[in-house]
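Researcher: Sequence recovery benchmark, item below. Answer with residues only.
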């Protein structure tokens, strides 16, 4: 029997994992973006999904072999499209920081990812408006959007009030305009992950028929969706590796701009090319290299765990499982904002601006409670 309260708890665990995944990447030294993004991504999109699906489900390969090719194709296609959002999500963190970047990206992702699946299925009217549970869940979505707007407006206030020096002190490549444009694109494309999960309903049914418990039936679907995302991210990162000649960094050779060998090093530093007077090559120690691999493995696995817990939470949300996406997105923003404060991204913001941020977070917390309550009405 479903337990929406437990489902909300699982979604919060997933949100914490997602909000935390980029933090280890900040500690990577001497690697350009494409190197640490692809290294961590192999854990996110390949190693962790297949390892945990094989561990927790029954007859994984048999289930996927019995899945119609069209279902596999749709899951991977939406994952491929989501990959564009994943690529630009990393850029958003570089330009806007954790808290503001997540608020804008995930705000759009929340709306599209929650509403489009029932609209596409043709049951939006009956699901969202035809029942008390649906109306309460829809009200929770509206509160979520309001909370996101409040958090984003606080970020805009911070941007307007800080000097360029203050912005770059906490976010090395802060660029509000560029970051906002990238975030809008990322948010729309990232919502495709929700469509990929919805397209895998038959896979969940086949996994359940094979004897997999209800908490784990969604894990094979993640393998397919992230597989599509791996194609997008992998091709783009390898293209950058070839263009920038950065592949040697995997074995310890580090492309460094004078005095700027930090985790947020921009691609422009590497794109300057071997003839640039500001670019030099030096070798990382084996300890530093091992540390980079360990941090990428941690960050990539944390990213995967957001959907590991997501599928667990969705299994407990009753027939209004589509609202899981709203709760998931809201919880990411909540924990992302907390990380933003912990990393001092808001230390120079005015008191009123910081109060506004926490007001937005409070609305998001309240929204998860409302949506959880709405789901209890359907069980």
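Model:
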């Amino acid at each position: 029997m479903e337990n929406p309260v437990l489902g909300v708890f699982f979604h919060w665990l997933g949100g914490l994992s997602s909000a935390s995944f980029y933090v280890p990447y900040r500690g990577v030294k001497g690697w350009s973006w494409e190197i640490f993004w692809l290294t961590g991504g192999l854990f996110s999109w390949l190693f962790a999904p297949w390892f945990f699906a094989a561990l927790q489900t029954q007859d994984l390969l048999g289930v996927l072999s019995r899945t119609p090719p069209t279902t596999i194709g749709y899951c991977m296609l939406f994952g491929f499209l989501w990959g564009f959002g994943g690529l630009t999500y990393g850029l958003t963190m570089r330009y806007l920081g954790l808290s503001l970047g997540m608020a804008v990206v995930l705000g759009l992702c929340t709306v599209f990812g929650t509403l489009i699946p029932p609209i596409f299925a043709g049951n939006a009217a009956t699901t969202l408006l035809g029942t008390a549970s649906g109306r309460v869940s829809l009200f929770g979505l509206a509160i979520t959007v309001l909370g996101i707007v409040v958090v984003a407006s606080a970020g805009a206030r911070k941007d307007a009030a800080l000097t360029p020096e203050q912005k770059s002190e906490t976010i090395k490549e802060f660029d509000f305009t560029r970051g906002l444009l990238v975030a809008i694109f990322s948010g729309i494309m990232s919502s495709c992950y929700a469509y990929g999960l919805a397209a895998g309903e038959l896979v969940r049914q086949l996994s359940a028929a094979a004897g997999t418990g209800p908490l784990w039936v969604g894990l094979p679907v993640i393998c397919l969706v992230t597989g599509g995302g791996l194609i997008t991210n992998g091709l783009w990162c390898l293209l950058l590796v070839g263009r920038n000649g950065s592949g040697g960094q995997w074995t310890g050779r580090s492309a460094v701009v004078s005095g700027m060998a930090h985790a947020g090093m921009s691609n422009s530093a590497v794109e300057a090319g071997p003839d640039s007077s500001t670019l030099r090559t030096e070798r990382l120690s084996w300890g530093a290299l091992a540390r980079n691999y360990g941090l990428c493995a941690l960050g990539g696995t944390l990213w995967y765990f957001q959907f590991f817990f997501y599928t667990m939470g969705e299994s407990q949300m009753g027939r209004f499982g589509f609202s899981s996406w709203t709760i998931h997105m809201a919880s990411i923003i909540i924990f992302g904002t907390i990380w933003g404060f912990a990393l001092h991204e808001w230390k120079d913001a005015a008191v009123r601006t910081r109060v506004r941020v926490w007001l937005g977070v409070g609305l998001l917390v309240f929204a998860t409670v409302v949506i959880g309550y709405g789901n209890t009405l359907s069980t």
